[in-house]
């Protein structure tokens, strides 16, 4: 199968041949983090904590005080970038490596997660550590306040031709892919850091990705949500397309998951809940995402998620037929070339939760896409004994080929997913405001362009900013 995705790693993607001025904008002259985010006071820790143990060492003082968590996010400060290509073994090939005790001094979740009840996460010392068994902390809340505020009307930002190369200093490459690369840049106006995704027009046309590329720009222009990447503007020259986006310092959830082997029940629940809110927002705006996976989930400096890479996102009021996505995460109706709707994203959420809890995807088979497709169509999932019963029940209701039974596709829509027993501790309103501490805070310095969580790559030698004959201009008029 061809690898047609942008910034891919092990798993390939399959595909056919503001009205309001924001101080976080790259051309803003303010050097201060000027987005309208009001920080909330950090909550103190109690005796029951969940920690994420990886092989990276975090300064000791982070384990006793959390950064302030933003609430009421309207537009993020310096956040977000598309994923890099980081080398590494597949989850099925990777062997467990014990983490020395002196390297487990990592940040904690406080007052948000119930300790897992014999979900098996304590069976391996190579995995994420669990909460103290005798305590009963909750996801901040009273179960009576679980409703997320109604989605506000979408205000479409004007992004076309908003910036130019002259507005930025290119610092380094964050990732490379089939169509180009992503650079860390610094604005010459407000000195803040952004990620610029550069796509080679010739490659986009050659790989038959013109429609998906235009859809990506269009979808990113319309969305605005705490758990989605922000597109600040676009521009082009005769050879390349440029998308100016958030720089998300913390790197990919994929990298954290590989270091941790698998997540304990409460940690997987935290990330799954944030993804659920993001999918709910997209679907209410008639947008199907179609490429959910750990590689496309970035961690901001507070440890909250940002979904990136909207290359396969599209407005779909009813059904569509395009075969696209990542083999491990494709729903059976996509594999069988049937028309499908937004419920394929809920199937993918099930696969994501399974991978976070187990360290591998349920239909993986030697890495061969065709074998994976066969397994998806057979639909047989083996659940390890350490998966919590509530989690298994949710997975069985998401990873089902029967669209009349798949949660998210029923009359209750996303509320059926949010009201499932596995999410019983979640106070959705507080989570939507990021008013809950994340289980892991990346070891990065804020506001200084810290790209330590991303691999280094040879720098681009092609000259950007060329202005000559553009044979593809008519294909990308919206840039």
TrEMBL record:
Q: Which domain of life is it from?
A: Eukaryota
- Domain named Protein kinase: residues: 168-423
CDD domains for the chain: STKc_PKA_like
Q: Which GO terms describe its cellular component?
A: cAMP-dependent protein kinase complex; cytosol; nucleus
GO terms classed as biological process: signal transduction
PROSITE patterns the record matches: AGC_KINASE_CTER, PROTEIN_KINASE_ATP, PROTEIN_KINASE_DOM, PROTEIN_KINASE_ST
Organism whose genome encodes this protein? Hyaloscypha hepaticicola
The name under which this protein is listed is cAMP-dependent protein kinase
Q: Which Gene3D superfamilies match?
A: Phosphorylase Kinase, domain 1, Transferase(Phosphotransferase) domain 1
What is the main EC category here?
transferase
